[in-house]
């Protein structure tokens, strides 16, 4: 039997194999360009030279078969100091390709779902076999001519059929007892996919019964139930499509995600681009959510090195690898999202959430309950409030605790966060002393920069000509933007007494913690 005949035989049996071909040689090698061999998970056919070089190539081939490595060219050096330890004096390149076996679909049960699933699967290249223990349902006339239809007990018939990683078994019988027999046969045969069409109650009964009969929960976790992808629709044809979609997704190790360049199904709008809101944006962006930030025309951004709101002053800002950029309108915002950039819009009321039908709206204005921000439950599918001023399950869906302490970042799905006590966070015994505030109304002009070290009594800037002094030694961690019109008492910046041990370009632990809370709520409620 030739190698290609062997390869065809393996494919027909549904067994994947690796085909190894020498595509280049240089110097002395045991075989020539074009020589081939076949490797399966537990066998080999032909040779590309024997010895260490073949042993290494076989190992590489099995890594490709297992999905641990990609197909491609491997170079083997047959000389002293080379990667084979051989001393032939040459070198050869071997192309390792994965040849998939025939995709098979066994359907247990010849009812309405089977009648829709069989022809659909055959159009996609699956070899289909239908099994039913009732003669009336094991009727070849009900299925395409290429479908094998077998009459007999589910466990016996399926147990005699060849199975492997290229085999999918869809179980849709009329009874939990027969479901159990079919699922057991599929697990025993190491089928690549096992799906059970059943209600939650029926599925629990089948799996619990199999567990009681000795099947490990680890193996039972492979059973897909509820079966299929959530595609919507109803009726046998829709169920068949969802099952085959899942089978095909698993066979190709795909994600099932939309392949569109821009997917707004998970759009999050964050009201407020300060440092805490930006920690939320960062967490959500890293988790794969597209995020738009909305702000007022001139936001008071203190820790502007880690605040996406700064983009409204600087056009673009990058916070720990995530770029935010000012957008003039929704169309520009969508273009930025498509380029994997966080758009920052002047949109104080966050009307973009309604216009783009956002999935999640996060109020990160940090008003601390001092005024009504206008955020309401129903503004998006999921509405999350940060800190005091919101009541979960009433005006928002969830509230994230912002007060430092044991509850920081905790998500409340009923009730409120703790009330704001007016105390800034404590650092080395300092609270209010850390904060720089405007002594009068006027225009702010700083004389230091974020990251500078200062000493108590230093002038860090002026408001309408009046000096602003720091009360403590430390590192300037935040300053609002130059030229901002401020009112008396406005927070202008803060000084961290920990000094150079603090990196003002890194998102704070508090902001990341709050981001984790919002991410929890978004994933749980959407």
TrEMBL record:
Domain of life: Archaea
InterPro entries: MoCofactor_Util/Proc (IPR052698), Se-dep_Mo_hydrolase_YqeB (IPR017695), XdhC_CoxI (IPR003777), XdhC_Rossmann_dom (IPR027051)
Database matches in PANTHER family: ALDEHYDE OXIDOREDUCTASE MOLYBDENUM COFACTOR ASSEMBLY PROTEIN, XANTHINE DEHYDROGENASE SUBUNIT A-RELATED
Gene3D superfamilies per record: NAD(P)-binding Rossmann-like Domain, Zn peptidases
XdhC- CoxI domain boundaries: 11-68
Stated name of the protein: Xanthine dehydrogenase accessory factor
Domain called XdhC Rossmann: residue spans: 105-247
């Amino acid at each position: 039997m030739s190698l290609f005949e062997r390869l065809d035989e393996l494919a027909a049996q549904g067994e994947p194999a690796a085909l190894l071909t020498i595509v280049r040689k240089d110097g002395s090698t045991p075989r020539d360009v074009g020589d081939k061999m076949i490797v399966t998970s537990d066998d080999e056919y032909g040779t590309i030279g024997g010895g260490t070089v073949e042993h290494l190539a076989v190992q590489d081939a099995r890594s490709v078969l297992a999905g641990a490595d990609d197909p491609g060219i491997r170079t083997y050096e047959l000389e002293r100091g080379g990667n084979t330890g051989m001393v032939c004096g040459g070198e050869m390149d071997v192309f390792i390709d994965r040849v998939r076996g025939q995709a098979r679909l066994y359907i247990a049960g010849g009812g309405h779902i089977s009648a829709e699933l069989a022809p659909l699967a055959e159009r996609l290249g699956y070899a289909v076999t239908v099994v039913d223990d009732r003669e009336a349902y094991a009727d070849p006339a009900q299925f395409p001519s290429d479908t094998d239809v077998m009459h007999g007990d589910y466990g016996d018939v399926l147990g005699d059929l060849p199975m492997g990683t290229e085999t999918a078994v869809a179980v849709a019988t009329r009874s939990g007892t027969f479901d159990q027999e079919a699922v057991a046969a599929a697990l025993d045969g190491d089928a690549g996919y096992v799906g059970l069409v059943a209600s939650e109650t029926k599925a629990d009964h089948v799996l619990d019964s199999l567990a009681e009969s000795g099947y490990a929960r680890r193996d039972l976790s492979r059973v897909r139930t509820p079966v299929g992808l959530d595609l919507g629709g109803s009726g046998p044809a829709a169920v068949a499509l969802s099952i085959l979609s899942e089978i095909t997704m698993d066979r190709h190790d795909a994600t099932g995600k939309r392949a569109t360049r821009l997917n707004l199904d998970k759009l999050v709008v964050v009201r407020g681009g300060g440092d805490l809101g930006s920690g939320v944006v960062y967490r959500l962006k890293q988790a794969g959510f597209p995020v738009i930030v909305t702000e007022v025309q001139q936001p008071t951004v203190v820790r502007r090195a880690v605040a996406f709101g700064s983009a409204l002053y600087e056009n673009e800002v990058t916070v720990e690898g995530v770029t935010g950029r000012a957008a003039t309108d929704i169309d520009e915002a969508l273009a930025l999202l498509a380029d994997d950039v966080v758009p920052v819009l002047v949109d104080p009321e966050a009307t973009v959430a309604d216009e783009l039908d956002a999935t999640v709206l996060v109020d990160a204005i940090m008003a601390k309950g001092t005024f009504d921000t206008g955020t309401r439950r129903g503004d998006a599918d999921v509405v999350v409030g940060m800190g005091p001023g919101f009541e979960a399950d009433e005006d928002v869906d969830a509230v994230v605790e912002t007060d430092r302490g044991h509850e920081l970042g905790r998500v409340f799905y009923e009730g409120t966060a703790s009330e704001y006590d007016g105390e800034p966070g404590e650092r080395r015994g300092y609270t209010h002393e850390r904060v720089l505030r405007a002594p009068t109304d006027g225009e702010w002009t700083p004389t230091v920069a974020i990251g500078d070290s200062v000493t108590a009594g230093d002038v860090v800037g002026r408001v309408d000509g009046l000096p602003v002094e720091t009360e403590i030694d430390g590192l300037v961690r935040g300053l609002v933007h130059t030229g901002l019109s401020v009112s008396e008492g406005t927070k202008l910046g803060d000084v961290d007494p920990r000094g150079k041990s603090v990196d003002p370009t890194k998102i704070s632990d508090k902001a990341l913690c709050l981001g984790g809370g919002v991410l929890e709520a978004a994933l749980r409620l959407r």
